[in-house]
Amino acid sequence: MATLKDVAALAGVSVKTVSNVVNGYAFVKPDNRRRVEEALVATGYRPNLGARNLRRGRTGSLALVVPELGIPYFAELAGLVLRAARAHDWNVLIQQTLGTREGEREALAALGPHVVDGAVISPEALRGTDFAGVSGPLVLLGEHPLDLPLDHVGIDNVEAARTAVRHLLDLGRRRIAAIGAHPDRATAAQRLRGHREALADAGLTGPVASVEHYHRRDGAAAMAALLDSPEPPDAVFCFNDLLAAGALRAAADRGVRVPGDVAVVGFDDDEAGAYGSPSLTTIAPDKAGIARAAVDLLRERVDGRDLPPRRVRTPFRLRIRESTVG
Amino acid sequence: MATLKDVAALAGVSVKTVSNVVNGYAFVKPDNRRRVEEALVATGYRPNLGARNLRRGRTGSLALVVPELGIPYFAELAGLVLRAARAHDWNVLIQQTLGTREGEREALAALGPHVVDGAVISPEALRGTDFAGVSGPLVLLGEHPLDLPLDHVGIDNVEAARTAVRHLLDLGRRRIAAIGAHPDRATAAQRLRGHREALADAGLTGPVASVEHYHRRDGAAAMAALLDSPEPPDAVFCFNDLLAAGALRAAADRGVRVPGDVAVVGFDDDEAGAYGSPSLTTIAPDKAGIARAAVDLLRERVDGRDLPPRRVRTPFRLRIRESTVG
DNA sequence: ATGAAAGCGCTAACAT
DNA sequence: ATGTTAGCGCTTTCAT
Question: Could you give the domains of chain A?
C-alpha cells in the first residue's frame, strides 16, 4: 500500500505538497499538482484513515447501540441511522445489548475512547451511574428518567399510549389489557402510565401482563393467559408490534376473533403488521425523523459546540387497521 | 484523556513498563506493577485504539455489507455476525447497498484500506470486475458465479428451491408459480433454476413472476397478477419470506384460501412467518452457522494464512407450516 | 508555494 | 526487568 512518502518520492516533491493536493489545498504550483496527481494514480494511493484520524483526533465512526437487530423496529431504525450517518461521512459501528443492563454497560465500555466520535444509544435498563465512565458525546434514544446532561430524542410515550387506549375506548371496549410491563425498562413504565391514565379518565382499570422480553413468544404467552383468565379482555394494547404479533397468533390459536372478540393495538409500526391478517393497528413513530435528529444532534456535539442538553420530541400517529376496526 | 506517558510519569517508570503491564506482559517487578496499576486507575487510563492499531497495522473492525437492514433476513444475519465478531474482539461496521450494483460498489470503495481488517459481503448484483480495487480480505455470502479467488459461504440455492417445489408437488399441486425472478441477482437465478428443474422432473412448467425488489409490496403485486390471470396457480414458491408475506396478503384480500386454493412457500424462515395466520412454510437456512463460518473464514484470512479460496456450504431445512398443510 | 521536522499514542526492537 | 528510541502514516507548525 502506497504512502504519502512513496507518492512524494515518485513525484519529486515533499510529503507536504502531496498532502496539500490530497486535501484539496488551493495553492499548489500547477506543474507540481500535475506531477503529484500522476503519482497518485500511478501508485494507487489511498490515505490511511487510521493515521489521519490519529492525527486529527477523530475516528470517522459513530456507534449505534441497540438491544437487538432481530427486533424489526431496531433493525429499521439502524438502517435509517446508517443512511443519516452517511450524509455526515460517518461509518456506523453497531453494538447489541440484548436489552440487559449488563449488555448495555459492556457496549459502553467496549467503545471506549478513540474508537468512535460519539454514540447513539437506545438504553433499556441503564442507570444513571452507568454513564460515569463514558467518554464521548452521547445521544439517547427514547425518554429516560435519567437526569443526565445528555441529548434525548424520542416520542412522548405516555401520550402515545394514551392515544392507543383512547382509540380502544372510543370503539366501545371496556376491558382493555396492557401487555409489556417490565420492571426496569423506562419505556415500559411510560406506556403503562399512558394505559393507566387513559383508563382512569374513563373510570376504568385494566389487567396488565408483564413480559421478560419484547418478542413474539412473550406476546403469545401473555395473550394466552389473558384469554384463559376468568375475565378475558375485549381489547389489548401491546407495547410493541412483536408482542402484538404473538397476541394475534394466540387469539387465532384459540379461535378468538380479532377484532370481533378482542381488538389489538401494537406499537412501532413494523411493516409486517400492515401485511398480516388481520393487519395491525399500531402507534407509528417517525423513525426516519428520530434517526436524522439523533445523528444531527451528535454531529453538533462532536463539532464541539458547548450546548445545553436538548430533548427532541418526534411526532407519532395512530395507524388504524383491521385489528381494531375489522 | 490520559496517555501512556502520563501514566508512566505518575508511576515513575518508563512507558515500556506501563505498556507491559497494560498488555499483560508477565515479567514486571511486583513493586513496579503495583505502582503502575495505581497510576492506571488514578488517571483513568484507556488505551487509544487508533494509535495501537496504527502501530499494529490492524483496525479492530470488520465491515458487513448487506442490501438492507429493513429486510428481516439481513437484520437477523447482521445480529448474528455481530455476535460472532465479538468472539474475535472485532467491532462491526455495517453498510447498506440497497441491493444495487452502484450501492455495492460504493460500499466497497467507502471501506478503502485501513478502515477495516476485512469484510463480509452479501452481494446481489456485483460483477467480477467490481472487485478489482478491493483492498483487504473478503468473504462472500451466498453463491456466486463470480469466478474470483474469494471465500464463499452459503446454502445450495438450487437444491433448496428444488426441495420447496418438490414439497408442493408431493402435496398434489400441479400449477406451481415462482415469485422473485430478477435480471441480475445471482440467488434469483439459482432459485429459479431449482424451480424449473423440480417441475421439469415432473413433466411440468409453471409461471414465473419477476420483481424489482424483494419486499412485501412486490410479493403482493405479483401474487395479485397471478391470481387474476386466466390460469391461476394452485401453489406459489416465493424467493423470500417478504414476498411470501405480500403474497399471503394478496390472497387474503381476494378471498383466496391458503392453502386450500393456493399453497405458499417462502424462503429465509423469518420469525414473522411462524406467527402469521396462516403460518408460513419456508426454507430455513442455518443463519447462525452462516454468520459464524463467515467470520471464522475472515479471521483466518486476516491472520494471513495463505489459503486457497474455500466454499463453505451450510445446511438448510424445509419448515412445513400451515401455508401448505393447513 | 513548498520543504523540514515535530508529534498524534502506541508497540517493538534494541540496549542495558 | 526496564529504559530508550524509532516509527506506524498522517497533518501541521515553522521556516524559507
Answer: 4-47 (1.10.260.40), 59-155+287-314 (3.40.50.2300), 157-285 (3.40.50.2300)
